Amino acid sequence: MERKEEEETEEKREDQTGETEEPRAKKGKITVEEVSEEGPTVSSPQMITYDPSSMTIDRETLPSILGITGNPTGVLLQMHGISVNPPERFILSPHPLENAIKKAMHDSYWKLLSEDLEKSPPVYKTAIALVNEIKEMLLNGLIPMRDEKRRNEVAARLDINTLQNEVEQGEMNVATIASFILNVFTSICAPHRDPEIKQIKENMHNLPILLRNLMEMTDKIKEDVVSFKLEMRRDEVIEAARMYEKHDLESSFTVVKGAKEKLEGWIRNVYEKTAEEGDSMDKVKEIVRRVVRRGFIQNLSASSISDIPFHWRLDLKEIQHFSLERRRIALIAASVYLLNSIHPLHSQSQSSLIPRLVSLSHHLSKDNINDILDSVYMECEKVLREANTLNEETEDKVKVIRALSNKDQPLRVLAEKRLDEYMFTLVNSPSVSPLPLPPSPLTPLSSLFLPLQSNFLRYIIHNENTFYDLYVNVISKVLTLRQE
């Protein structure tokens, strides 16, 4: 990406001096009829898009900039995905209209090109128009303005008049022109395109396909340039996606009766559970942090979807996954604790058993908990048998594992309660390293918590940043009432 960084720096400099070369007035395509009066009236399926380095990026423009279309819910989910888990590289989705136009032009254009080149002698008008368009793309956005030498080479070698003269003199060599273009591509493209360019170079015998590959590679390089320029403004893109979600929630308050009041009530309820002596507006940031994290942990034990507050609903799938993970850890912890109470395990034996239990419970769901616990029970019974401690008394004790399917079973309740408190500690003090040792009966499972902490914080921090003003507004009202 070093080449692209230089390009971005140069374009910024040119923006400041006002010397940037503008694209063609209509952002248009050099059609075949512009090349020759006798040419057919079909232009190549190529679209020249905007330059994101000079565009305003906000919640209103971001969907169109990224080419995200569809129903409002689908757009919202994509905006949410960008802000929660930003991609390594912003991939532009082609606009449906652009796709439709390209598709409509596709068959007729490439068929015409093939027919022209297969004639005897070959007719190069369509090919010249295509090469000219590639040249325009290279000069208007892909080759940095400061690279004057390469720009001059491209302008001269791909000049329409020069190409027409070569045709008239019988000296036209499409493969030579293609090699020149591919060498230019190699000098300006992102490294991940090199294998594709190499493959094109190795398959240059079919001229229609070769020219088509050149045009498609121009499209890809253009997309890379646009993506890179968006990457340079990554923080703006993520903030715009976050503001899109925030605005959607605020808009829903006017549509869904009682939604705002219900959400504010949820925030008040969580705060009341976490309130500390000395809370004041001077500590509001700390209070919001505490409320968001406690609220997230509370969501993991929600008995129904309706208990998940409105501003967490876009993360419902992840919350349900984390909820099952919470239950899985609690069941394994309770089972291991029970087994240790019957027959204390050596560290090596315990270290061997826990991965097996984790694997057995990997596909835990609300519908198969009894089957999972049966498997865990049999594994623990096996440990007792191998230790020659399995008898009628110990077998009755270990059967309690099966009873853990009851959410009110005391050992399970204890494990889940301590798990919730420990997870809150982890997300509320993420900078503590190494992680504090979990309390009994969670202690043997300490290796499972580091990835959980990281995953939890991704969603917690997003929620806190996106809806911070909402939390502050509700908490300030509560603190004001307390003072009165």
TrEMBL record:
What's a BP term from Gene Ontology annotated to this protein?
signal transduction
Which Pfam family, any one, appears in the UniProt record?
Tcp11
Protein name, per record: Uncharacterized protein
Native organism = Pristionchus entomophagus
Please state which protein family the record places this protein in.
Answer: Belongs to the TCP11 family.
User: What stretch or stretches form a coiled coil here?
Assistant: 373-404
Asked if Transmembrane helix is a keyword of the record, the answer is: no
Look up the domain of life of the source.
Eukaryota
The uppermost taxa in this organism's lineage are: Eukaryota, Metazoa, Ecdysozoa, Nematoda, Chromadorea
Which stretches of sequence are listed as region Disordered? 1-49
User: Any transmembrane segments, and where?
Assistant: none
Sorted alphabetically, which keywords does the UniProt record give?
Answer: Coiled coil
Where along the chain is composition biased (Basic and acidic residues)? 1-25
